[in-house]
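We were asked to recover a plausible sequence for a given structure. The inputs and outputs are reproduced exactly as logged, with field labels preserved.

PROBLEM: sequence recovery
POSITIONS: 119
GIVEN STRUCTURE:
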């Protein structure tokens, strides 16, 4: 699988205030979307997340988000190394994602940019 990039996940209490900080630091404009009860802003290599603690506590368990060329290819490689697919693949505003637990217990989100993908 080709890992194209990594995004850091940051849970914040005030998304609007945080967006300005990260836009200034990265020079990138925020792309906002909603994922369940969590408001998300993608800013450069950061995913800023704000919402109910019950949902954020689950999201905090995910170490990082990895951009890949194709989630289906990632599944093949993940299964080959003994990883468990614990969620997905599911459509997102920018493609598809899945969450996998690696054999060492680490949890990562994998995303691709397949706009026309179906879950």
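RECOVERED SEQUENCE:
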């Amino acid at each position: 699988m080709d890992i194209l990039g990594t995004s850091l996940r940051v849970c914040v209490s005030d998304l609007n205030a945080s967006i300005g900080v990260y836009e200034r630091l990265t020079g990138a404009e925020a792309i906002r979307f909603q994922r369940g009860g969590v408001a998300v802003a993608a800013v450069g290599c950061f995913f800023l997340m704000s919402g109910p603690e019950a949902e954020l506590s689950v999201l905090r368990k995910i170490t990082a988000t990895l951009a890949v060329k194709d989630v289906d290819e990632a599944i093949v490689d993940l299964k080959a190394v003994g990883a468990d697919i614990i969620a997905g693949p599911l459509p997102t505003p920018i493609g598809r994602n899945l969450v996998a637990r690696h054999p060492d217990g680490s949890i990562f989100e994998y995303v691709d940019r397949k706009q026309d993908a179906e879950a």
